Amino acid sequence: MSTELAIRLRGVVKRYGAITAVDGLDLDVPLGTCVGLLGPNGAGKSTTMRLLTAQSIADEGELEVLGFRLPDESKAARAECGVVPQLDNLDTTLTVEQNLLVFTHLYRIPRAERREAIERALRMANLVDRRDTRADKLSGGMRRRLLIARALVHRPRLVLMDEPTVGLDPQVRQELWALIDSLRSEGTTILMSTHYIEEAQRLADTVLIMSHGKAVAAGPPSDLVLQHAGREALEVYGPPSRLAEVEAEAGAAGLRTRRTGTSVSILGAEAGNGYAVEGERRPANLEDVFVLLTGEEIA
Questions:
Q1: Residue 122 in contact with residue 96, Cβ under 8 Å?
Q2: DSSP tag of 1
């Protein structure tokens, strides 16, 4: 394995009976980068995360995390990883500080270093003034920050975040984005699954779009937009009959389209291809790419 990769997956398959949750997945996560797994529920993102933490074992393929082969060397790999689960599994009978203390023991942080490790995690998650608050008394955003702090208490080389902001309101999500940004600035490697397009575009250096267990596109968000959707989209509004006409006319001109509620987006509108129609021009975006490639709207 190249020392430049924190994660390397090749041809990974995971089946649950007749269902193939992950289907021939290749994934590279370079050291010091943030890579986003983007897809709707059921795309295979959480299954991929479970494979990387050896909670599930792949049926086929090769998995390497921080130079360790999975599942044989999963214990050594987990010791150098921090995991932020999708579901809140904090011990609600313990305070913020006690939750962190438990994990300093689990990660075998030397006794002399535990206090500083806890203080550092509290500062990073902006929970210093909540250290004596029981976990069940925290807001949803604070609980999520504590989950992240818990994953960081042992200074992991790699952090795995499974939908870290799911179910949170936009203000709290922005707060957590700032925390994730601070990790990126320190050179921490992050693999983050999400079904929020804005989150992937905002945080990830590279995005891998998944659908039905497969990778359908991968690259920097701006490159994916330029490659699949062009620079500009033309938004055309009207009744369904008119929108169907616009789709047919644009298709005949070799232009791609996507339906967006009561409008049709004509992608790559800067190319023109001899097709002209009145509409509102806007920059193409990652949502255009996602819907174009998967046919699925994101929640």
A1: yes
A2: -
Residue 122's identity, in one-letter code, is L
State whether CATH 3.30.70.100 applies to domain 5-220: no
Other CB atoms closer than 10 Å to residue 91's CB: what's the count?
12
Domain 231-283 has CATH 2.115.10: no
* Rounded distance between C-alpha atoms, residue 254 and residue 92, angstroms: 57
Q: What is the 3-state secondary structure (H, E, C) of 95-120?
A: EHHHHHHHHHHHCCCCHHHHHHHHHH
**C-alpha torsion sign, points 283, 286, 291, 297:** negative
Q: What is the pLDDT of residues 173-212, one digit of tens each?
A: 898 899 898 888 888 999 999 989 999 999 999 999 999 9
Amino acid identity for residue 95 in this structure: T
Q: Show the tokens assigned to 137.
A: 């008394």
Q: Which of 138, 100, 133 minimizes the C-alpha distance to 119?
A: 100
